[in-house]
From TrEMBL:
<dbReference type="InterPro" id="IPR001406">
    <property type="entry name" value="PsdUridine_synth_TruA"/>
</dbReference>
<dbReference type="InterPro" id="IPR020097">
    <property type="entry name" value="PsdUridine_synth_TruA_a/b_dom"/>
</dbReference>
<keyword id="KW-0819">tRNA processing</keyword>
<dbReference type="GO" id="GO:0160147">
    <property type="term" value="F:tRNA pseudouridine(38-40) synthase activity"/>
</dbReference>
<dbReference type="InterPro" id="IPR020094">
    <property type="entry name" value="TruA/RsuA/RluB/E/F_N"/>
</dbReference>
<comment type="similarity">
    <text>Belongs to the tRNA pseudouridine synthase TruA family.</text>
</comment>
<dbReference type="GO" id="GO:0003723">
    <property type="term" value="F:RNA binding"/>
</dbReference>
<feature type="active site" description="Nucleophile">
    <location>
        <position position="73"/>
    </location>
</feature>
<keyword id="KW-0413">Isomerase</keyword>
<dbReference type="GO" id="GO:0031119">
    <property type="term" value="P:tRNA pseudouridine synthesis"/>
</dbReference>
<feature type="binding site">
    <location>
        <position position="131"/>
    </location>
    <ligand>
        <name>substrate</name>
    </ligand>
</feature>
<comment type="function">
    <text>Formation of pseudouridine at positions 38, 39 and 40 in the anticodon stem and loop of transfer RNAs.</text>
</comment>
<dbReference type="Pfam" id="PF01416">
    <property type="entry name" value="PseudoU_synth_1"/>
</dbReference>
<feature type="domain" description="Pseudouridine synthase I TruA alpha/beta">
    <location>
        <begin position="30"/>
        <end position="124"/>
    </location>
</feature>
<protein>
    <recommendedName>
        <fullName>tRNA pseudouridine synthase A</fullName>
        <ecNumber>5.4.99.12</ecNumber>
    </recommendedName>
</protein>
<dbReference type="InterPro" id="IPR020103">
    <property type="entry name" value="PsdUridine_synth_cat_dom_sf"/>
</dbReference>
<feature type="domain" description="Pseudouridine synthase I TruA alpha/beta">
    <location>
        <begin position="164"/>
        <end position="263"/>
    </location>
</feature>
Length: 263
């Protein structure tokens, strides 16, 4: 089912019906990014938000607006996405979870649903997020193509390890973003690198991320690993922020929203 209702129409109806909805709930949901045209509502395309709002409108006979911890682009997966919205008491939370999972048609899975404080907001209450990026060497199975960045040669991990501390901390990351405006000041708390068999797992935790920021950071680490540019160039990108200056953006297929942290 494709949502053809404009986002602003959803908001206006939601404001009118909010007084009738007495329960603020939070869901933990995972989804396959290639099954959707991103998270946010887009006319003529099925997205996570549009499908979820369609499901809730069908269940509650009222337009319900949902708020996610953050948007994911087309092809980006979620292991732990969090979405909050208001409902009434007509069905139990466990029954709601069962119905929504059936409605998802194996495109998503809702692990749990719980009531939260009325002032809780999945996006604005979040304190930090972790993204996982997966690189796979020489994957011959086409089933992996939508789940990782497939590369055909080894990266220099000693160089990548040296690059990580340069990126950690508070910097202007506009060079690592496709955002039009320079609002690039963000804090990367930690970048963890793990190798297992033919796979590389990159975990990036921060207080917030710009558009395409994680994918462009991974692209920069990749360029360091293949010796396309050196550590001084990485420092220069941070010291001289400009939209998209890092250039290389890792494919969406390898990116996962791994976890969101709340107080």
């Amino acid at each position: 089912m494709v949502c053809l209702v404009h986002q602003n129409e959803w908001r206006s109806v939601w404001v009118k019906t909010l007084a009738k909805l007495n329960k603020n709930v939070l869901i933990n949901i995972s989804y396959h990014g290639t099954k959707f045209h991103g998270y946010a509502v887009q006319n003529d395309y099925e997205t996570v938000q549009s499908k979820l709002q369609d499901a809730l409108a069908w269940i509650y006979e009222s337009k319900i607006y949902v708020n996610a911890s953050g948007r994911t682009d087309k092809g980006v997966h979620a292991i732990n996405q969090y979405i909050s919205f208001y409902i009434d008491d007509r069905i139990s939370l466990e029954k709601l979870r069962e119905i929504l999972n059936r409605y998802g048609q194996n495109k998503w899975y809702i692990k749990w649903i719980k009531e939260v404080d009325r002032n809780f907001h999945a996006r604005f209450s979040a304190k930090a997020k972790t993204y996982l990026y997966l690189i796979d060497y020489c994957a011959n199975n086409p089933l992996f193509y939508d789940h990782a960045w497939i590369v055909n040669f080894q990266l220099d991990f000693n160089l990548i390890e040296k690059a990580i501390p340069i990126l950690e901390g508070t910097h202007n990351f506009w060079s690592f973003s496709t955002a039009d405006k320079d609002k690039g000041l963000r804090t990367i708390n930690k970048i963890n690198l793990k190798q297992e068999d033919n796979k590389v797992y990159i975990y990036i935790t921060g207080d917030g991320f710009l558009r395409s920021m994680v994918r462009m950071i991974v692209g920069a680490l990749y360029n360091i690993g293949i010796k396309k540019y050196d550590l001084n160039h990485l420092k220069w990108l941070l010291d001289n922020p400009k939209k998209g200056r890092a250039i290389t953006k890792a494919p969406a297929s390898g990116l996962y929203l791994y976890e969101v942290y709340y107080e």
